[in-house]
Fold this protein.
Amino acid sequence: MLMGLVTKNAILLVDFAIRSRDEGMERSVALLHAAKVRLRPILMTTLAMIFGMVPLAFALSEGSEQRAPMGQAVIGGVITSSILTLVVVPVIYCYLDDLAVWAKAKWTGKAAD
């Protein structure tokens, strides 16, 4: 569940940045714009999952002590993954974009712009 959520958020963030770059934005501006626009949906999804897991994490009912660690792990994972999606994914995108420019320049023999 967490892997799917993180992957979806990362794909949508990078896709938005790529489309912004296709419209003529610089890479860093496109990434900041994508993070700004996608922040609200990412936070809404994160908060919905957190509030949905709170009853499970607090173990309020009889016999729910066994399921509480799962709820706590999901809450921690969703918070961590949301932060990583908004910070680490753009950094990795920048590194991979620089690598692609370098590789293209190396294979075509032209200097990078």
Q: What stands out?
A: The CA atoms of residues 46 and 78 lie 6 Å apart.
